[in-house]
Amino acid sequence: MAAGISWRHVLLWALFVGGMCLLPYLVPSGTLRTFIFANYLAIFAMSWDFLSGRTGYISFGHPFLIGIGAYTTAILSYRFHVPVSISIPAAVVTTMLAGTLFFLPALRIRGSYFALVTLAFMELMYQLVQVIRPDLTGGTRGISGVKTLMSGATNNFYLSLGLMAVIAIFLWSLNRTRVGTALSAIGMNEESVRGSGLNTTKLKLFAFMVSAFVAGVGGAFYVHYLGSIAPRALFDINFLFTIIVASLIGGASTIIGPMAGAFFLTFLLEYLRPYLPGTERYFIYGTVALVLFMYQPKGLYQIIVDAAERVRGKPKPEAVRDPAA
Amino acid sequence: MIQVIIQGLLLSGLYSLIAIGFTLIFSVGRVLDLAYGAYLMLGAYVYFYMAQTLGLPMAVGMAAAIAVGALAGSLKYGFIVKPLKGDHVAVEISTLILAVVVQAGIVLIFNDSSKVLQPIVPGVVWIGGAAVTYNVVAATLASWVILGALYLFVRRTLTGRAMQAVSMDIKGAAISGIDPDRVNLITWVISGILGAIAGVFFASYTQLNPSMWVSPLIIAVAVVIVGGIGSIIGTLVVAHIIGFMEVISTTFIAAELRGVFTMLLIIVVLVMMPRGLFGRAEL
Question: Contact, B84 vs B170, CB < 8 A?
């Protein structure tokens, strides 16, 4: 066992994944589709969180990475009839290259300015996709009829669950290694990390690559699940908002947090649908997110941890606003 | 050619108007207010409701927009910025969430569809083969008047000087008897008012719809980043650079490329010059 991973953890993960596997037998296929979306959102949220939640480099352009992955595989398989077994890995590689592009500003700028550059990346991509080679990208309308990998809710559910579980466990174990610790340390004080002799550039590049890898995998599989792609659905502030809020609501810089946040959000969204059918739903969950963020910037995860400690009677340490959160 | 110059001047005037309230917060409060676009949207919708749905005089509509902008500014400062104590990242994330909440609120009240705002000043004049609406001319003139007034306010009045002091050094200002809290509140209120006015003009230039806050926000961000310093003159200069760049690119290259160059400018300037063109320390 690697450092900090105990058999209790393994058991909990196995219980979680095993429990999820039983879902298709328990819930109707409509609910299953909601779970599929939640699984993908969890992947995106973990990808955002591994970069921004850990290192404090807040990415406002994450849909840029996801979109690159989704568009690459969609164009390859739809326009050039490349088999999916090649187009998806190609999409992941392209996303990682785009992650390097994303990384360059991070070498020189931090904080608010980094967030803004990434926002500009996303908006730039949104406009370029529509203008440059609309014969390939489908312009404003996007592409529909992309080949789907699986048919039926159950198969797609298992696929998304498998992806999410593998990514979650991978990132979770990564977080518990010394690299994970170093990345969180960058979020707290980058100069000190550099001062203690670590190469922060390499560490940051690693975080960007992992984040881009996850975003690419998520984006590519997601487009093959949906079967369609459109610029305003991807390079969109509401999409970005959903990803960020999922991470924050659950608890940034934990892996369980973004996952829980994604499930919480998706189901909140789903249960609000009968009352508020359109974008108005963002009003409720935005407000929930805002209040939660102001009250407990570390999210539901921290609230649960605090509650558990109160039950056990451990003294609660003074709450400190974590700048990385 | 004349057409490009006139269009460029007019668009730049509008952009200066959009950016100035955002710049003000950036220079005095030292935070980026991503919900700034929401002021514009609120102002525009309030004006629309008053002047077009209720049919009240335009002046009443404008006054209501200004009042709502001021209220929004003070609420935002009191409930979000002050409790977060200038934690930049937290302010950015929460103002982004706030912007989406406001957008959803607008959809809830006014529904999703786009609405056309009647021009505040109707009429068209033809100059050198280009149609110039009086409305855009009015927006440009208004922006010049507002910028001038703001410049005088910041330079000449006590409150304005206090704002300058706080923007330079909060502790120093506090020691010399300025209440930074009050100054910040005033700044947020002014920013809200400027945003609301800009919103009315911006909406009459484009259209009224619930996602209209994004593009003016990006313009404001570009102006702040490229201009950097948050001075009124800097805002004016950079708004003109961006305005002309857009007019030139849409006229000579392709109309769809409107925002592309603005975005590229943000990226290039930030990567080449991490402190912006006029170089103030990063947040």
Answer: no
Element (H, E) at A144: strand A143-144
- Contact A86/B at CB under 8 A: no
The model's pLDDT over A183-232, given as tens digits with 9 standing for 90+, comes to 888 888 888 888 888 888 888 899 999 999 999 999 999 998 888 888 88
Answer whether A289 sits within 8 Å of B97, measured CB to CB. Answer: yes
Among B108, B260, B282, beta carbon nearest to A111: B282
How far does the CA of residue B79 sit from the closest CA of chain A (Å)? Answer: 9
**pTM of the predicted protein model:** 0.86
**Beta pairing class for B130-133 and A143-144:** unpaired
Question: Which ipTM was obtained for this model?
Answer: 0.81
**CB contact (8 A) between residue A113 and residue B105:** no
Cross-chain residue pair B266–A116, CB shorter than 8 Å: yes
User: Which residue among B80, B218, B256 places its CB closest to the CB of A123?
Assistant: B218
